[in-house]
Every structure is written in structure tokens, then in C-alpha cells.
Amino acid sequence: MYSALHAVTYAKSTGVFDLTFLLVLFPAASAAVLLLGGRRTDRWGHLLGCAAPLASFVIGVIEFFALISRDGGQSRQLDQHLWTWVPVAGFHANVNVLLDPLSITFVLLITGVGSLIHIYSVGYMEHDPDRRRFFGELNLFVAAMLLLVLADNYLLLYVGWEGVGLASYLLIGFWSHKPSAAVAAKKAFLVNRVGDVGLSIAIMLMFATFGTFSFSGVFTAVHGPGVRSGTMLAIGLMLLLGACGKSAQAPLQSWLLDAMEGPTPVSALIHAATMVTAGVYLVARSGAIYDVSPHARLAVEIVGAVTLTMGAIIGCAHDDIKKVLAASTMSQIGYMMLAVGLGPGVYAIGIMHLLTHGFFKANMFLGAGSVMHGNNDEVNMRRYGGLRKLMPVTFVTFGFGYLAIIGIIPFSGFFSKDKIIESALDKGGATGDLFGAVAIAGAGLTAFYMTRLMIMTFFGVKRWPRDVHPHESPKIMLIPMAILAAGSLLAGYLLVLGGSLQHFLTPSVGSSIEQGAHTISPWVLSVITLAVVLGGVAAAWWLVGRKPVPAEPPTHVTLATKAARRSLLGDDINESIFMHPGAYLTRALVFFDNRGVDGMVNGLAALVGGSSARLRRTQTGFVRSYALSMLAGALAIAVSLLLVRVG
Amino acid sequence: MRVDYYLYLSAVLFTIGAVGVLVRRNAIVVFMCVELMLNAVNLSLVTFARLNGSLDGQIIAFFVMVVAAAEVVVGLAIIMSIFRSRRSASVDDANLLKY
Amino acid sequence: MTTLPAHSGFPWVMVIGLLPLLGVAGILLLPKAREAEARMIALGASVVTFAASIGMAIDYKVSGKPFQFTQDYTWIKAFGAHYALGVDGIALALILMTTALTPICVLASWHDAERLSPDDEASSGRGPRLFFSLLLATETLVIGVFGSLDVFFFYVLFEAMLIPMYFLIGSFGGPRRSYAAVKFLLYSLVGGLLMLVAVIGLYVTSAHQLGHGTFDYRVLINQVHISHHEQIALFLGFFIAFAIKAPLWPFHTWLPDAASEAPTGTAVMLVGVLDKVGTFGFLRFCIPLFPYASKLFAPYILGLCVTGILYGALVAIGQKDLKRLVAYSSVSHFGFIALGVFAFTTQGGSGATLYMVNHGFSTGALFLVVGFLASRRGSRMVDDFGGVAKVAPWLGAMVLIAGLSALSLPGLSTFVSEFLVLVGTFTVHRWFAVVGIAGIVLAAVYVLWMVQRTIHGPVTRAVEGFRDLSLREAWVIGPVMLAIVFLGVNPKPLLDRINPSIQRVNVDVRHGDPLPGAAIHCVRLPTRSSAAYSSSLTLSLAAARCPTGYVEFTSHVTLTSISTGSTVK
Fold first, then answer.
1. Domain coordinates of chain C in residue numbers?
2. Which residues of chain B lie closer than 8 angstroms to A621, CB-CB?
3. Fewer CB atoms near the end CB (10 Å): N or C, chain C?
């Protein structure tokens, strides 16, 4: 049958690996206690909320070391069976958790960065009466996200997938009494649902084609003889649709900027470090499927390249610090998508950028939160200016993130982003060159908008209103920021040195073989990229830094700038294609249902009623007429009987 | 024996009764006309019984008489009460069940 | 003659069916002065009934006979009508759902039937005694319908169900209650009439074949062979009756009126429990009795289902009245259920059966929370609410969870069933399933938009005084939520009992589920026409995936079994 080379099997978990389920259980139980416990848990809720991801983190670390102490290859993939979930004939879904290099990497990211953000939130949400609910929902998110990355089959992954969507919905709408937050939450869920349709169709296709949707079953079967390339392309594209929804990639990108209505720690954890990168996880996890479908890979690359450009352009135009960071997240995830789309050998590089991005972007979001905390929740960068003196710690930690994202050597972004550009160029051919060029240009744009952000926020003269007194944030917020800043600096070495991450991830995503010769020597490429980045920084200084920042955005701007300010018309397109026609269709159908379908039934009733009303007229109330009709009836019967007899 | 005459008589009596029911307005008269029709039918039943030499027709005639008697009791009572409440025995006045 | 044992096991079905009637007797014995105690009796009777049905579920043997706890007595000898009861996995699941929801309905209607004053003339006939006895009578009849193994007995109960429901809507509902009740009655009667014709037709057919007519369900499916023409006619009679009851698009317009005029408990009973009889009827009668006609009409029916899914969801989006919104969402959900039933796959059928159970709880939860909202505000209009979550967080949370369950969030019970239905359809009718999936996006639209406008947003003046869930309301909604979560996480016990029954239902329509595409090879067979081979192989009955002149076979089958002896690999 299938060659043993391709067979994917997971070992049964034993010993310490039987604790894997606790990773999900701790935050889930904590969420249940906090959300169901009500006001009774208000006093200590935030402590429990922080303890749960920390406990998961501890288990994650233990399991990580247990994992690397085992031999490489298959023995590092351990499957724990919890219970049989949905058994219907051939359709068999288990609740199993799979611990392998890819999932443990994510577990450490989620619980590590997650714990820091939980701790930060203790300070950030201190004055919110609903802090306990906030921690409950944040724990719910962590549990769902862990389920997403630990699932050993696509259906269970889908549970986590929608679970993080729910948590995101709840947290974006945390201040649901604000209409803008309620609308943004709904929008995020709906756009994600469109993506989820893709994921569910992909699962159905897998079941219809392979009779299974477990990772091991599907990854083994894709090499089977009866598999058609068209089916694999369809599965790949549908998975990509799901990934686009969750990772805010074009064309489903429009929800992410609105999602910034949520509290800032949420933006840091969900909409920067973890949940939005789930799409990248999905593509990397499904590597076996994309490996056999080059066209699907090309689609992933295109989506990544388009989104990284779009995000960078949008980032240049917004004045809301969180929206700039959100656009930057889109753009950076575009890089990751591009990387995982490049196919065999490059998945690990995409994951590497995902990890470094998790550090520096979470760091910057927390920094932005700290800035907002000190400025009465002001988000408009035109109301900041010169904050570096008043908020020195925030400035320094944010600066680390800044240097990392624009890719200055030796910060972490330098390592991961350069690798992506390198891989794109190494792909060769016209597309490879194009994607490489886009990635380099994107690096320049990133440098531009991030420098603009730094200048408008921390440099120049103060522009805040008189009643605002910017101040540094409390220690409980600064310490997580400092740790993440250290991560932004160091993560690169740890992951890149000796190809350690690529080597570690090999059992999950395949080995990172170099694809032939480099088209351009890595050293030369690094120099070129750094030059472009410095060019972006200089351009930002030239355009923004030399003169005072105006309090209101200039109105006489080019059409392109206007489009960028409207997030490249994403919402306008959605509204004109889906929402307005949809609203019209809905109204038309309601009318049709009342007048058409129900109208027909009521019309029938009216017809019967009307004819009865006419017939009623024969009931004159005169005995004579009744007697006459009886007589006529009797005669008619008699005559017809006679006719039958005679005739 | 000839039964024709009895049958002619029965038909005439029935027709008188039927026309009476159709044209008269006094409830009592209408009622009597109904009785006339019943008796016309009784006559023909007895005639045919005689003709066939069986008792069936006569027995049915007795049934009809009993029913007619019962009907008279109920019917007259109704007519009386209508007359008492409306001071009229005209069937055209009692048209409460009109559409 | 029938070799099936007339009686087997403890007569659970009869016991469960009679317990609510005992409650009715108790209620009717109450003097008027103590009529408020009727609800206590009703609650007690329904809880005991639920306990008994749990006993039945425990006693039910997963790998036992197709129908268990059977009883069979001749009822009307002249035309072969029996008093025959018994349950398979499908009926078991639905009876459990019915008996679980009835106490909820009783508790939800605690204050609905109260008289405004002790001698309130306007409501002289209608008091708690009437209301709760009607509710319990409905329960008995529904249990009988699910447990009946005789077509005539089924028909009688099917029609008798209308009587208590008619009075529940017509006597205790909202301002347009009599319009709604008459509409409900007329729609159902039209369907019932068509079914009566088909029931008589079935009797005549059996009389022709067996020499003596019978209504015994098990005899009919095992021993009577109905010709294709007869199947078509009889199928349509049953189908339309059940499609109206379910209701399937376009027979749905009675539902929004009836559900929105009925008081909360009645609405739950009507949509959550009573309407399942329609979709249950598809599985119990339409498919096993008329496999040919079922297969013939399946594509058109699937078209109706998909239309209903999208149509119901779109119209729900445009509703301004919360109860009508929930009712239209049910039209969409019934489309899913029927889709699963008429896909004739185990996944589709089991998913549909599970969907019936889950829909009872999920729509029940929605009606309940809408009832809570309406009772506080005195209005059911979406625009009259806003910011409920801020004032009454628990109530807001319940609205949200009920909504999430309606949009089939994974982890909640509806997800499992909806996914099974769609997967089961996908393996045989790819495009119907894909169009149906669009319904889950629309479901998110109507649910989340409703949530946004009612519980989110700024607190409106009218909502400011809202109190949070009372203890009684918590007891009403709590168990429903528990069921929704439990069945979402662990549907296995229920599915294990449903699966074998579904396989038996589908056995005459499709022999086994279609095999995965990758397991099918296309092999050219040169010597004989491929049709001759296909009968000798265990083949997938799905749409042929191979070009003509080729034959499909699976990697589990080797061609050595073919007379030519040639082995093809």
C-alpha cells in the first residue's frame, strides 16, 4: 500500500506526557470558576487568572525538556487519548491531544507570553469593575488556543479554532456598552465565520476523500494512489480560506483594525502574539497537504505577499497607535504566510518569525497600553509627543520591539525576516523574485511606519491636552514588558543558532533542507535589506521628524493616502458587495414571506371564506325555501334513479 | 284488486301537503300539511303491503305514526313557545337562523 | 406471519406515557380554591416521567433488538389496528428529550396561567388546572407518537396532539392567539388528512398482499412489498404531512405565528418537542416504508431543505420580533435536520436525530431567554432592548450562550449534530452541503446581530430596571444549558444508540455509507459489461466517480472474486 516513508504515526503518550491534558484543563477550569463564580470571586479572581496559564507554562516547560531528552524523529510525537467524542460509522472523532515539537513550541509561546500578559493585565485592568470577568475570558482564550494547537485531528482543532474566535469576540466586546466595541466584536466573529466555512469544507473534503480527518490519517493518505491533485488543491485552498479569516489576511483582513476596540492586553495576546497567528499554524501543520499541491502553495504565497504590502501601507496612514500596530501585525503575518507558502523546508522559518513576532509585537502592544494608561486612554498619536522623558522604561522596552520589528541586527526580527526574504528569492523564477522584492520593499515600509510611530509618540514636543498628566506605569506592568523586551533581543539567537528551531521542528513540518544554491549570498542580501530599512527610517525622519506634528491630520492628501487611511477600502468593499445587497435581500425576503408565501395561504383562506359568504346567502331563513330545496333534491334523486333504471 | 286509486289518492294528498308546506305561512297549517304528507306516504305503504301480501309496509306505517306523534308533541310545543314570545305563528317571522 | 415477539422487556413506554396522565388526573381532582397547586402536581408528574425515561435509557441495550420494550395488543380487530409500543434508538433519544423538556416547560410557565384575580370572569374557564393538564396531555401524546409501532395508532395520536396544543395556544397566548391557533390547526389538519389517505392506502396494499390488512409497522416493513407507483403516492401523503409538521420550507408560515403568540412554555413544547414528530416521521415511515420513492424524491427534498436553511436564516435576520426571529431560525434548523435525513448516510441520519434532540434544547433555551426578556420589558421587539448585559449580567450571559448554541459553536451540542449532517450530506451531495454551510454564516449574522442589539450597547432607559435571573428562572435555564454543554462534549452515549437504528432505516435506500474517494480505483474491465461486475462487488452507491467502461472498486476488495479470475491491483 503506502510506502513506510510517508506513513505518519504518533506514539502513545506515557509518563510525563500524560499530563498534556492539564495544559488545557488548568485555564479551562479557571475560566469556568471565574465566569460561573460571579462576584464571589472578585477579590482573588485575577490571582487565579494568572495562576492558570502559569501552571500550564510550568507543565509546558517540563514537557519540553522531557521531549528534547528523547530521540529525534517520530518518538517526539506523543498522542494522548482522552475520550471518544463523535463516533458515527466511519466518522470517528476523538478528543486526543498531540504533543509534538510544533505544538510544544506554540504551547510555550501561548502560556509564556500569555502569562506575562495576564500579569500585566492585573495592573492594566485594576480600576475596571469587571476585572474578574476579564481574566475569566482571557483564560478561556488560553484554553481554546491550547486546544487548537494540541488537537490531533482537524475537527478538534476546529473546536479550538472557533473557541478562540469566541474568546476574541467576548474580549473585543469586553466593554460591550460601547456600541463601537459591540459592532467590532460582531464583525470579527462574522468575518472569522466566513473563514471557518473554509475550514469546515476542508474537513468534509478530507473525510469524503480519505475517510478520516486525523492528522496522522490524512498526512499518510495524501500520498496514496487514489488521490487527485484537484482534490488536494481544493483542500489546500479551503484551509487557506480558514487561515485568512483567523489571521486577518486578504481578503478577510478587515476585522483586525476594528478589533482594537478591545482592552490593550487582549490586542497584545490575541490580536498580535497568538490567535491571529493560528492561520500560520494551520498551514504549517497541514504541510503534508501543501507539499503535494504546488498551486495551493502559490495561493498561500500570494495571500501573504498581498497582505504584507497592504498591512504596511495601511500602517503608514493611521494615527491611532493601536491601529498602526494592528496593521503591522497583518503585515508581519503576511510575512509568515509567505514563508509557510514557500513550502517544504520553509515552514520552520515561518514559525520562527511567528515566535519572534510574538515577543516583539506583544511587547510593543503592552508598551502602547502603557502609553495609553499614562495618557487617559488616548490612542491618537497626534496627542502624544516627547513621552520618552516621562515614560523612560516604556520607551526603552518599546524601542527594543521597534528595533526588532524593523529588523536591525542583532534584534530577533533581523534573523527571522531575513530568512524569509532569502527563502523567497531562493525559490527562484519570476514569482520567487517578485515575492523577494515585495518582502524587501515591505521591510522598508515597516521601517517607515514604525519610525513614524516612534517619532510621533516618544520624540518631538509634547502635544497632549492640559488635563492629561502622562506618567510611567506601575511595576506590575513594566516587568512583563521588560521580559518581553529581553525576548525581542534574544529570541533570535536562541532560535536561529545552529538552526536549532528548524532542527527541532523537523518531525512536525519536515526537514529544512536548503533549496539549492542561494541566488544571492545571504551576507549581500542582509546588507541590501538593512540598507532598505535604513532608507525607510530616514524617509520617516525626513517626512515626520523634521517639523512639528500637526494636531489634525492634513486634509490635502493624495487619493492613495486617503485610501490607506480608510484601510485600503476594505470595509467599503465589504459593505457594497455583501452588506447592502444582503440587507436588501433580507428585507425583500421578509416581505416575500409575509405577502408571498403567507399571502398565498391567507389568500386561499380568504377565497374559501369568500365563497362561503356567498353560499351563505341561500340560507334565507324562510322555511318555504328550505322545503322547496328539499323537494327539488328529492325530485332530482328520484328522476335520476328513474333515468338509471330506464336508461 | 286495483291499487291505482289508492295510489292516486296518496299522490294527491302528498301534493296537497307539499304545496301547503311551500305556500302557507301559518306554522300550524304548515305542520298539518307535513302530517298530510306523512299520511299520504302511510297510505301508499299500506297499499303496497296489501299488494305484496306482506306486513312490512304496515309495520313501517305504524313506525311513521309513532314518530309523527312524537314530532307533533315537540313541534307543537316549539310553535307554542314561538307564538307566546312573538305573538305570531308565521313561519316567515321566525328567521333567526338566517345567514 | 410475524415471528417477532409481541412483548419484550418491561413496558417502559406505556409507563412513561401514562405517568403524565396520572398527573392530569391529580390536577383535575383539585378543587378550584387550590388550583394553584396544579403546577406543583404537573412539575412532580413530569419530573417522575423524566426519571422513568432515564430508567428506560439505562435498561435499553445498545446491541439489542431493533425495537425494545415492545407491547402488542389487538385494538380494533376489524381493520388490523394494534396498540403496539416499542422504541428504537431514535425514539429513545426523542422520548428522553421530550421528558427532559416538559419539566422545563412547566417551570417556565409557572406564572403564565395565573388568574389576575380569584374570580376573574374573563379567564373563567382557563386557569392553571386547564393549562397544566393540557401540557401534560401533550406530553403523553408525544411520547405515544414516538413510541408507537402501529401506523394507525400513530395516526390517531398524531392528530390527537393537535387538540391540547390548539387550546394551549388559543386560550393562553398573546393578542393574536386565536388567529395563530386556527392557522396551526388548519395547517396540521390538511397534512393529517393527506396522511390519513396514505394510511388507508397502506392498509389496502397490505390487505392485497397478506390477505388481511394490517397497520403493524414491523409487519409492513418486513413483509409487505409496495410497488413503485404506490410508493410514490403514499410517500407524498406521509411526506407532506410531516413536512408541514416539521415545518419544512415552504410549509412554514404557521410556525412564526404560533410560536410568537404562544406563551414561553408552550412555544418550547411546540417547537422543541412537537415539531420533531415531523422529522421523526421521515425517519420512521417515509424512508423504511417507501425506499424507492424516498430515493426518487431525495434530490428535490434536499433542494427544499437547502432553500429552507438559507431562507429561514435570511428572514430571521430581518425580523424585528424576537420570538419570530427564533421561529425563523428554527425553520433554518429544520432544513438542516431534513437535509441529514434525506442524505441517507449514517452520519447524516444520526446527525439529524441528534440535531432533533439538540434543537429541542437549543431552541428551547432561545425561547426561554426571549421569554425572560419579554416578561421584564413587556415587549418582544428587538429595538426595545439594549445593554441588558450591563444591568443583568447572568441574563445577558444566558442570551449569549443560547445564541451561540443556535449558531452551532463547537463545544456546544448543536455543533456536533450540524457537522454530522453536513458531512453526511457532503459525502453524497457535495453542492447541497456546500450551500448549506453558507447557512452557518447567516446563523452567525442573525444571532450576533440580535445579541448586539439586545444585550450589548448602551443601557436604554427601559432596561435600567431589569432584575437579573430569579431563582426559578435559573432552574429553568440551568438544566437546558447543562444539556447543551454535556451533549456537545460527550454525545457518544446517545450516538451509540442512534447509529444502529439509523443504519436500519437507510438499509433499503443505500447499502452502507459511501467509501472515501481515495479508496476507490477505476479499473477497466474488458471482457464483460461493467454493469455485470458492479453487481458482484460491494460497491459504493454514491455517484459514479469513474468514466463509463470502467468500474469502481475499493482497495478492500480484490477482483479475484470475479469469475474471470483476473487480478487487478
1. 290-513, 520-559
2. 95-99
3. N
